Amino acid sequence: MNQATIENAHPLLEVRNLSHRFAGARPGVWAVQEASLQLYPGEVLAIVGESGSGKSSLLNCIAGRIACAPGQVHYRRGSDEQWVDVHALPERERRQLARSEWGFVEQHAAEGLRMNVSAGANVGERLMAAGERRYETLREQGRRWMEAVELDPERLDDSPRAFSGGMRQRLQIARNLVTHPRLVLMDEPTSGLDVSVQARLLDLIRQLVSRLQLSALIVTHDLGVARLLAQRTLVMRQGRIVEQGLTDRVLDDPQHPYTQLLVSSVVAP
Ligand SMILES: Nc1ncnc2c1ncn2[C@@H]1O[C@H](COP(=O)(O)OP(=O)(O)OP(=O)(O)O)[C@@H](O)[C@H]1O
Question: Who has greater pLDDT, 193 or 93?
Fold first, then answer.
């Protein structure tokens, strides 16, 4: 989908003036400060910046996992097309949203998986939470999604502990996608993996996002990941968004001195 088509649609997510300060942080030090963004259906937006710039905090605030004060996260819910204020939703409804229409891919797969149940149960669990009870359907969907993320469906009953890092990450993606979410939040989904494993996983994410027309927010410190996956990129520094725009524009013609530094430190020999 090209950007003009994307922006002709109504946004799916609107983040307004979002700020977060961790308890105990030094006075005046904010993890996120006055961040505003919009995400459109079918769009991938990368959040880049150096370590400690507030990328994960912003993602966690958007997901409703940590409080934002002040600020708001508005989401156009698919079940009734109503705009909801994510932080004002009752906890039960927010959890329901997180389990159905939203996905969250953790940087460390072990945090996004249940390591003491089988691969198939990891996928089936989310479907069960969405109301599916038939054992055969759960197994069949487990196999189907393992195949979709290029895992051997014969390993349905294996523990994720028996999987490699890259395989666990694939399984975590399958677990997230089985309920056909509209919005997926990913926190450094490929970091910590071997370079060749990263490349395959990125390619898989790119295919899935396009095939399923997902909207996604991807936190990454790797500008190559932003270039490959995201139509738009926003740059964070010390908790603030300092620049945002089309990925090619931001990376090829950065306007903010910090983005210029970030880009040049990648291309420097
Ligand atoms: N649980 C926490 N308690 C207190 N301060 C925190 C906590 N998590 C993050 N911070 C602080 O908030 C700021 C932003 O951190 P955050 O993890 O959001 O950055 P990041 O850009 O995602 O970094 P990285 O790329 O290293 O994961 C940092 O100053 C960090 O020290």
Answer: 93
